[in-house]
Amino acid sequence: MYWSDLKDKVAGLALAQSPYGGSPIASDILREGQLGDYVNLRKLMEILICKVLKGDMQAMEDLTYKRRKEFLQKHHLPKELPVVSFHTEASISPAVLATLSRVAHAELPMMAPLSDGQPARLPVVMPLGAAMAACAQLLLVRYKEQSDGLVARCDAEVPGSIVVRPKRKLDHAWMVYSSLRDDPSEADAAQVCEALLTLLVEVGQKKRHELSMKDE
User: Fold this and answer.
1) How far apart are CA 20 and CA 50, in angstroms?
2) Is residue 214 part of a domain?
3) Mean pLDDT, the chain, as a whole number?
4) Stated pTM of the model
5) Which domain holds residue 41?
6) Structural domain tally of the chain?
7) CATH of the domain at 112
């Protein structure tokens, strides 16, 4: 959309668990006769997005398949832009239902024995893994598609991009919120992001070399 202004400033595009093609969860929640009609889920999502997360329902609408199709038909990615797509599959094993994720920290008032002048900090945890596992199970049963709980793997692949498909089971929230059971022997989100950016630079260098060879 703004490529003429950005082409000298953008080296490439790395998409991590991105709903490039849309999200089945967004489409089902907002479509009549689908998930949004059960237990007034549409209204609950509106409260969650607008009141709790201080967001906009327009963002949810923009992730439906209809809106994404309209957008992608109007705005094509430049052929010379290096693109890396990274997508994952959420685990749906029973153990995941007991997994808690850190989503914030709460500060407690300073109390004498705890103190060197700093307030005590406690992690705030939520069962995000369980929610992602439930959504992934639903999408697998309903559409026969693997997903990270919010985005189907097929929708996270940009056509023509270099695709990274890790075998490790990771849900959509993993990139932002770490689990209390994270394995220290596995790469964390920061290391994965660094690896993706390194790969993107390598892909960009190769693509520029190929373009220069064609010009000659």
Assistant:
1) 23
2) no
3) 80
4) 0.77
5) 13-201
6) 1
7) 3.40.50.1820
What is the rounded distance in angstroms from the CA atom of residue 105 to the CA atom of residue 102? 8
What are the pLDDT digits (tens) for 67-87? 999 999 999 999 889 999 999
Shortest CA distance to 119 belongs to which of 131, 110, 127? 110
pLDDT category, 181, cuts 50, 70, 90?
Answer: low
Cα separation of 96 and 128, whole Å? 9
Is the residue at 158 inside a domain? yes
* Residue 18 belongs to some domain of the structure: yes
Domain for residue 180, yes or no?
yes
Three-state SS for the chain is CCHHHHCCCCCCEEEECCCCCCCHHHHHHHCCCCHHHHHHHHHHHHHHHHHHCCCCHHHHHHCCHHHHHHHHHHCCCCCCCCEEEECCECCCCHHHHHCCEEEEEEEECCCHHHCCCCCEEEEEEECHHHHHHHHHHHHHHHHCCCECCCCEHHHHCCCCCEEECCCCECCCCCCCCCECCCCCCCCCHHHHHHHHHHHHHHHHHHHHHHHHHHHC
Question: What type of residue sits at position 159?
Answer: P
